[in-house]
Specification:
284 residues, alpha/beta, Rossmann fold, 8 strands, globular, binds adenosine-5'-triphosphate, binds magnesium ion
Length: 284
């Protein structure tokens, strides 16, 4: 009897350990300036707010932005891991109890041209810090360059962000094609940002997916969408995460829906009961 109880406890412990394995999600795009960094930062704030242990890895080498968006001053960055042998844990910055960021370093020209051994060193260091976390969010640069594809190759899930602009749609497809054909990535999701309304977001998603279906014979799931929110550029200027400043605003609500969709969480969509009331009557 005691034996059986022990076996059961072992099984539960093993299951708990398996559940604890982190998820690596990279947010990327074909075209630049589509909202990747804002999406990553606000996903991170919201996920950490529901108790998930999150690390944001700013992989936009040479053009890093995550620290700037959060108004955080950094002393060290990835360049110190690569060049001066610092540990990843030494350069990480704690934003709150559940969230830390790994800054990439700004305006450092040669960091964008790092070689394969340096990339691998970064990868090894990353492995050491993500052991005990739930989610590693990777903010990559835009476009298909080696420094972007390196990080995408190592991510379990990839979210490709597109906006309704035709150039962004074409570039999102180009990114998906490379990831799918060259790197055999199947776990790609499409996120539409800066849409006028839900109809426009759905049509952009369907448009990209139709191109994928025609040319790659493969369809990809939607990660959700975010509406254009005029408050967002103001928060960027203030260096504050919009999900903190305007949790019931269009962008924050979209982010919460995205988290519920991807992580099967149950984040409360509206903080304000009046907004919740109107949304239940009028939808949205
Ligand atoms: N849903 C939105 N509504 C309004 N403005 C937005 C929205 N999403 C992003 N923006 C604005 O677009 C600009 C670019 O956003 P962001 O820096 O997050 O893009 P990015 O894809 O990370 O850019 P890069 O490719 O340069 O790294 C910012 O000024 C931000 O305020
Ligand atoms: Mg960015």
């Amino acid at each position: 009897m005691a034996d059986q109880a022990e076996k059961l406890r072992d099984m539960v412990d093993k299951k708990k350990k398996a559940d604890k394995t982190h998820k690596v999600i990279a947010v990327t795009s074909g075209k630049g300036g589509v909202g990747k960094t804002n999406i990553v930062v606000n996903m991170a704030m919201l996920l950490s707010g529901i108790g998930k242990k999150v690390v944001v890895f700013d992989a936009d080498l040479g053009l890093a932005n995550v620290d700037i968006l959060l108004g955080i001053k950094t002393k060290y960055s990835l360049i110190d891991v690569i060049k001066s042998g610092k540990k990843m844990s030494e350069i990480m910055i704690k934003v709150n109890d559940n969230l830390s960021i790994i800054p990439a370093g700004n305006g450092v020209e040669d960091i964008a041209n790092i070689n394969e051994p340096s990339f691998n060193k970064v990868k090894d260091e990353l492995r050491s810090v993500v052991k005990d976390i739930d989610i590693l969010l990777v903010d990559t640069g835009a476009g298909i360059s080696r420094k972007v594809t390196f990080f995408l190759k190592s991510s379990e899930d990839i979210i490709v962000v597109a906006t309704p602009e035709p150039t962004s749609i074409a570039d999102a497809y180009a990114m998906i094609k490379i990831m799918f054909l060259n790197y055999k990535k199947e776990n790609i999701k499409i996120f539409v940002n800066m849409a006028k309304n839900e109809n426009e977001a759905v049509s952009v998603y369907e448009n990209i997916n139709k191109i994928c279906k025609n040319f790659l014979k493969k369809e990809f799931k939607s990660a959700g969408f975010a509406l254009y929110d005029k408050k967002l550029p103001l928060c960027v200027r203030e260096q504050k995460a919009i999900s903190e400043i305007a949790p019931d605003g269009k962008f924050s609500v979209s982010m919460k829906k995205m988290i519920n969709n991807i992580f099967k969480e149950n984040v409360k969509i509206y903080d304000n009961p009046v907004k919740r009331f109107f949304s239940s009557i009028f939808g949205g």
